[in-house]
Design goal:
It contains 12 helices and 19 strands. The protein has 3 domains: about 170 residues, 2-Layer Sandwich (Nucleotidyltransferase, domain 5); about 80 residues, 2-Layer Sandwich (Dna Ligase, domain 1); about 110 residues, 2-Layer Sandwich (Nucleotidyltransferase, domain 5), CATH 3.30.420. It is globular, with a radius of gyration of 22 Å. The protein is an alpha/beta fold and about 400 residues long. The structure holds adenosine-5'-triphosphate and magnesium ion.
Length: about 400
């Protein structure tokens, strides 16, 4: 069976993570190289210093390449930042051929009409994702190819980003000698790694709380319903601790990771007044926890404000899945459940990966692992032995954008 190498690069605000995998079929992703380096030149998910960011990407890619002795030529790269925006749109075409049979070409045509919103020159189209089709008014069709009808409607989720910020990221990656296979919105990537198809079908919200941004995606009926990026995450938690306890930023960061907890009730009551110390700086558990809790509650409120409507709980019966490095804060899922009154769990990526994937089973790698899975799921059909209609259908959403850009 044909083997193909896929590379994912997650250029995060705190770390750059490169994963190289070989895939022999859509279900098998074997990790052969991993390179993780601290990030530089990024702020709130956006490149602010091209040279620094390029160096960090280069270092991360080299590490992964050395492990597997392969040169990375192209990669799937994540995009985030406050200037990403999304909307739901519709398109319609008539099927004029005599047999009235819906073909792949018709899907391309209807998706073209669905993105007929004017994308201003300062924006770049990232995704036009088909959510649902209707054939002659029969709604809820997931794959209309092969059906007969006069009229084909599509509902799509359209995601755009500021052209300049995308260009800066692309420039950094290309200057490392790496072509972009696809640019993927980070919450979409993370959702590939930590959400199940059942959750997406029932209705679920995902929040990837990273270092610089909290990336949100809402799924319903198996398709993306809403996506958003909030520029508040782990960095603000550390800054609050630094300011609140009067300690340097790096000490605050260590304290947060080592002792940070938002447990509503302390397990050992004696802990409340117990002291913690790092690098000759001291504080109490209670103070640290109070500071963290206030900011985490604010982030949870911001997540709810991003939900598509006020009765969002009924939209997502499967609840909220939290991931990203900041979801490691102890007690987070309990606090989120108590505050939001929906089921909450922490999404850990990597159960389906084989190879040297053990270190990737941490929420902070949800985006990188998701980019890899996205890459595998959206490979051009000719790379696989089977070339079914279903494959073609799945890939249209991403490849259509190349046509437009
Ligand atoms: N155990 C822990 N407790 C609390 N916070 C943690 C823990 N481990 C990691 N973090 C925080 O997670 C954040 C990094 O998460 P992640 O790696 O997902 O971010 P990123 O992808 O680099 O950034 P972004 O996606 O926002 O651009 C940092 O702010 C870090 O302090
Ligand atoms: Mg991230």
């Amino acid at each position: 069976m044909k083997k193909k190498l896929i590379t994912a690069i997650d250029v995060g605000t705190t770390k750059v993570c490169t994963i190289i995998a070989d895939v022999t079929d859509p279900a098998t992703t074997r990790v052969i190289g991993v390179g993780i380096t601290p990030s530089k030149g990024l702020h709130k998910g956006l490149v602010v210093n091209i040279n620094e960011a390029r160096e960090a990407i280069q270092a991360s890619v080299r590490k992964a390449e050395i492990l597997c002795n392969h040169k990375v030529e192209s990669a799937y790269v994540g995009v985030t930042g406050r200037n990403v925006s999304s909307l739901n749109n519709r398109g319609v075409i008539s099927i004029n051929r005599d047999d009235r049979l819906v073909r792949p070409d018709d899907l391309r045509r209807v998706l073209t009409t669905a993105q007929a919103i004017a994308v201003p020159s300062d924006r770049r189209l990232l995704h036009v994702i088909p959510r649902n089709y209707a054939v002659d008014g029969q709604v809820g069709v997931k794959n209309p190819i092969g059906m007969h009808g006069f009229r084909l409607d599509v509902e799509t989720h359209v995601i755009t980003a500021a052209a300049t910020s995308v260009q800066n990221l692309v420039k950094c990656v290309r200057s490392c000698g790496i072509e972009i296979e696809d640019l993927v919105l980070e919450p979409l990537a993370s959702s590939e790694a930590v959400l199940t198809n059942e959750e997406k079908q029932v209705g679920v919200a995902l929040a990837d709380i990273g270092g610089g941004t909290t990336d949100i995606a809402v799924f319903r009926d198996g398709s993306i319903w809403h996506s958003a990026v909030i520029p508040v995450a782990g960095y603000q938690l550390t800054r609050d601790i630094a300011l609140g306890l009067g300690v340097p930023f790096d000490v605050a960061e260590e304290m947060k990771k080592k002792y940070g907890s938002v447990m509503p009730v302390y397990e050992g009551q004696s802990k409340e007044n117990e002291g913690i110390s790092h690098d000759s700086h001291g504080a109490s558990y209670q103070d640290l926890s109070d500071i963290l809790k206030a900011r985490v509650e604010e982030i949870l409120k911001l997540i709810v404000l991003e939900m598509p409507n006020s009765s969002w709980e009924s939209l997502v019966p499967a609840g909220l899945v939290l991931t990203g490095g900041s979801s490691n804060i102890s007690g987070l899922s309990v606090l989120a459940h108590d505050t939001l009154h929906v089921p909450v769990h922490i999404g850990v990526p990597g159960p389906s990966l084989t190879g040297i994937a053990d270190n990737l089973k941490d929420p902070c790698y949800a985006t990188a692992v998701g980019l890899l899975l996205w890459g595998n799921n959206h490979l051009p059909a000719q790379n696989w032995q089977s070339n079914e209609f279903g494959d073609t259908f799945k890939k249209l959403g991403t490849h259509i954008k190349k046509f437009f850009t």
